[in-house]
Amino acid sequence: MDAQTPRGSASRPNVYDVARRAGVSIATVSRVHRGNGPVASETRARVQAAMDELGWSPSVPAQALAGDNHNAVALVFPELVGRYYSEVLRGFEAEAVRRQQAVLILAAHQRKDNDAMVRDLAGRVDGMVIMDRTIADGTAADVQRRGVPVLLLARPSIEDVPAVRVAGADPTRELTTHLLDHGPRRLVFVGDPELSPDVAERWRAFGDAHAVAGLARPTSPVATGGYQQHDGREVALAVLDTDGDARPDGLVCANDQLALGAYQAAARLGLSIPDDLAVTGWDDDPFAAHMDPPLTTVNQPMYDLGACAAELLFERLDGDVVGDVTLTASFVVRSSCGCVEGASR
Amino acid sequence: MDAQTPRGSASRPNVYDVARRAGVSIATVSRVHRGNGPVASETRARVQAAMDELGWSPSVPAQALAGDNHNAVALVFPELVGRYYSEVLRGFEAEAVRRQQAVLILAAHQRKDNDAMVRDLAGRVDGMVIMDRTIADGTAADVQRRGVPVLLLARPSIEDVPAVRVAGADPTRELTTHLLDHGPRRLVFVGDPELSPDVAERWRAFGDAHAVAGLARPTSPVATGGYQQHDGREVALAVLDTDGDARPDGLVCANDQLALGAYQAAARLGLSIPDDLAVTGWDDDPFAAHMDPPLTTVNQPMYDLGACAAELLFERLDGDVVGDVTLTASFVVRSSCGCVEGASR
DNA sequence: TTGTATGCGTTATCAC
DNA sequence: GTGATAACGCATACAA
User: Fold this and answer.
1) Touching check for B112 and chain A: CB below 8 Å?
2) How much is the pTM?
């Protein structure tokens, strides 16, 4: 027999095996294992010994089937590129294992059959957190109607489905105003409001800041179609491919990866940051402080976002009714915006 | 009734409901659903309609229990900080969903009860990939003996448990020799061989390169106790806190995050990179090329590593016997090592 | 304190 | 082609 194809010395032991060995019924085995019902300490010891000797552990699917409960939760996100998602996931996972729950994940990518996969996922967990616009709007409510509590992350809540998010309007206004105050006048917003409610909110605040400054509201963002470095690079190359006064002198990027792409584009075009072009990001990646030049960005509590979502989800699973939660982000001035005075690391 | 506490219009429908509605037996329902056994096309249509109307989908735990198969796989890793892990996870997840398998994850952190959690995980999946030294050496073999095929990642294979990894010795020798050839003589290896077989391999190659250059083999690395930015910063601050000829003039870091920490330390101590201190990383984070100065590092195929591990795991689940796989990494010269000529972005 | 019996929702093996 | 029916492994109401 092939060594890599294990077969167990005789398939896994079950409750009956343990019960027989301990000379009790399966009900008693279940009781000592779950630590509920009453059981004589002497019996308990005998059963415990039998379990140990056989190396028994309960079948997860059987438990789930009988107990109608999975001891598992899921996180659904759009993609997995970049620190933002990995930090959210990290917070979510940490909180889940703290409660001894298994963690399932699903990256939606840009697949079209996401709703089907999400529904499948829903059959494997007790509750799930859904980020952004990863699935059709109705699906979340639908999943929940099927008995699986849902929590939304980085998007507004909908009927009966609470959400946790980071308020992006204030920092965006602060950032935009700061930029406008220090020179750049032809700012371009790099990011795709269609892809994420968070970014849509920032796009609006970006316009508001222009209005407050008495400037014309930019008519449309530069849609990137994604939030990765190469998206930022391509868009920046396209938008900067102009001479003279028409060329943008500031790129307000929806995340640090897009900003990184902008750095690439600027280097390729021989443009200096921040002299020829101001660039700002969002997320405050640890590397941002040591870029050339250090990147002005916005720090948002990504880990907390994931942990908080998990926490609220568990509260719901415990039967509590939870409300929306909004966390705050803070503007971090460095030097890529052209303002040297307040620069910090 | 509380709106957030869903209850389903009457709990989920099951095969019996579908069967009754279609006027057939549950066996037939199962047949049309699984698309195996013979069934009259007219009957099939009727059953299909009933399934659609009721919105039925099979209970995952029930399927797992009856079919002895989870349609799920797991990835266990030490932590989730940094691009390395998130990229490996990304590759793993992508390959898994491509095969319509659910993905479970577990970050071991530095918990002591990892083995227990891994065993629990093993009860939820058909196979699992384990990274590094996240669990006691015997546990992997043990899990596999219980019938769950295991694949090792970023560590050597053990009896009957194949592994996929990146060869780190060559790039390390290349990097170290490059450094030694261009000035720095008092190199320090920053990283913890105890924590990861990959790093242990590089530590050995680091010594080999010294020997080949006719230099004394460094006696011990600077153990970091972790691979995060702050680990690198603290260790660098400690090791650089010396004046004159005793101070190291080169830090060979086990990953880019540690190198980032070294940048922080250098800045704090007023040391210039690369003039006073050469620094190299590992992983080639996208930000590395745009750091100040651009970071010399080693590019390794992290996404592929995860995808490949998943692929091999699935081959094993399909009954194939698989061998070890070794991917290659490549040295990327930029300017943090003090060598300007070959610098690239 | 312990045991019996039934349900959980599938799949699959038989008969018919 | 189709339908009973027996697993699968555990939890629990109910008896004893």
Assistant:
1) no
2) 0.94
